[in-house]
Amino acid sequence: MSDMSLANLLKEERRFAPPADLAAHANVTAEAYEQARADRLGFWAAQARRLTWATEPTETLDWSNPPFAKWFKDGTLNVAHNCVDRHVEAGHGDRVAIHFEGEPGDSRAITYAELKDEVSRAANALLHLGVRKGDRVAVYMPMIPETAIAMLACARIGAAHSVVFGGFSSDALATRIKDADAKVVITSDGGYRRGKPSALKPAVDEAAEKAGTVEHVLVVRRTGQDIAWNDTRDIWWHDLVAAQPTEHTPEAFDAEHPLFILYTSGTTGKPKGILHTSGGYLTQTAYTHWAVFDLKPETDVFWCTADVGWVTGHSYIVYGPLANGATQVMYEGTPDTPHQGRFWEIIQKYKVSLLYTAPTAIRTFMKWGDDIPAKYDLSSLRILGSVGEPINPEAWIWYRKHIGADHTPVVDTWWQTETGAMMISPLPGVTEAKPGSAQRPLPGISATVVDDEAREVPDGAGGYLVLTEPWPSMLRTIWGDDQRFKDTYWTRFQGKYFAGDGAKKDDDGDIWLLGRVDDVMLVSGHNISTTEVESALVSHPAVAEAAVVGAADETTGQAIVAFVILRATASADDETLIGTLRDHVGATLGPIAKPKRILPVAELPKTRSGKIMRRLLRDVAENRQLGDVTTLTDSSVMDLIQSKLPAAP
Ligand code: 6R9
Prior knowledge:
Blueprint: H1 20-24, H2 31-38, H3 40-48, E1 61-65, E2 68-71, E3 76-77, H4 79-92, E4 96-101, E5 107-111, H5 112-128, E6 136-140, H6 145-157, E7 160-163, H7 170-180, E8 184-188, E9 190-193, E10 196-199, H8 201-211, E11 216-220, E12 234-236, H9 237-240, E13 253-254, E14 258-264, E15 272-277, H10 279-292, E16 301-304, H11 311-323, E17 327-331, H12 342-350, E18 354-357, H13 359-368, H14 371-374, E19 383-386, H15 393-403, E20 410-412, E21 447-450, E22 462-467, E23 477-478, H16 482-489, E24 497-505, E25 511-516, E26 521-523, E27 526-528, H17 530-538, E28 543-553, E29 557-566, H18 577-589, E30 597-600, H19 614-621, H20 636-644
Parallel strand pairs: 4-17, 6-7, 6-8, 7-14, 8-11, 11-12, 16-17, 16-18, 18-19, 19-20, 29-30
Antiparallel strand pairs: 1-2, 3-13, 4-5, 9-10, 14-15, 15-23, 21-22, 22-24, 24-25, 26-27, 28-29
The structure holds ligand 6R9.
Ligand 6R9 binds next to helix 11, strand 24 and strand 25.
């Protein structure tokens, strides 16, 4: 960014202190920041003791060969033992680990004792198929308990899993199988989505053909739909796994043993296989889940609505909650099947106390209307989390008010596939919350905002988010490409991790995320953040969602073009509305941020993990042929948007 004027357009004055009852019994107090500041490595060494080690580590961090970190390198542990067996050994075998809720309404409760048996059986099954320590296994599954069981079974025998989101195509799956050289794929016939069985196995058949590395396909029967069968390669889970003994002795692996590879698509080029290892990853996922959700494993019911195919599902459905012995809900389907109150019905049914979801979902609920959650008893909720995108202050307020009874803290957690676990977030018993800000690096984490020359910006200024010290759950490399790992993250600002996000510090030094730097707009020489203009639009009662892009403009360099989804209560035919919205943005952020064009649309293009794809909207705004749409949830959205567009003025 050539100038740093983007900062502090948005003024957000609302503040929310932690509820007194929560603060009085909170797992983490303000002292944690002090302790970690005084001795960062000592702090993480203490957190590592949450885990059960076969050999206790004596060295916390080896950073002798940056950016290749080794955490707890002389320690050994088994990740699955930490997530399952040790809770049974501690007498919690009867505690429910997973309350599974299928989309058609079937449900299943799995205790820690049952989970231990299932994971052990699945581990024996993988061994039977010839999977060994150090191998890779691809997992292409719907949101069912067997997905978590498969991942833990891999961890138990020291094979790295590579989970590929079930919505990806056979091509995407094939590329990932091939890149990781996976010899076994675990899948299912299909899963339930929007009231219908959707198929998974045909994509695996095609991908296995293309990749050429696959020896076996282990298939869970979920829907019972007809599938093609290859007798020499395919085997049913219920035939193989059910026949295995429940005895399996977990072996201890090095702390730096690979745990999983997870691919991120990014905007260009071949997907990056983000590699995570064992001890540091599990330490930070367990600590952050316990600290940020103030987890009380005996009484809380946690629900993370992400798909296990994303990092949020890896860290906060599988590893963090299970390492902590938590009880959680796992839901298979979509929020509006069979009706738009499904999430709230699930919270009421299981008395969910800790909810973790994404801004895209929250804005959708806002659009559907306040009356829907109002019909359910949500009084069990005590903390609400957000992740995935910047949360607009108005969406934050709505979440707290309509879901959290105007009482529960909202924790906006910033992190990435690459960081493995939460990095910047309020602490619910400590932080005076500011709607829309992730606020402060967690204890033990070092993050700041720098300018083009890698200089830390003063409070009140903006620039790029960087991480200045290694952290336990950091990616270790890009699978098979150390050079790309260095180039992508460690070269832009020497010695610092470049996250790719724009950010600003407010006058208190709190951090506000401003969106991906590729999305920042340059208007008449001013850097303007897409996030801030979107938040200004969403703060108008007529707007539920907004996506803003900079389109090439002869006079101003770029001009702001906004795509808005109106709330059910507003009308796109209201001729004065567009002018009102422009003025509203002008009044909120200043005249420079007034969109040149505002276009009401019915949907916005989103990635499959729910992030707005501004790149495609830029193509539309600049009357260009659309770029790659393969990562879109629904590519017909773009046809719809284009057909509604008036010609550019
Ligand atoms: C966990 C996850 C990472 C990118 C990240 C940023 C955006 C995530 C955010 C947020 C603002 C938050 N992001 N959480 N932006 N506030 N609380 O989403 O991982 O899929 O790898 O995406 O998501 O842009 O760089 P991943």
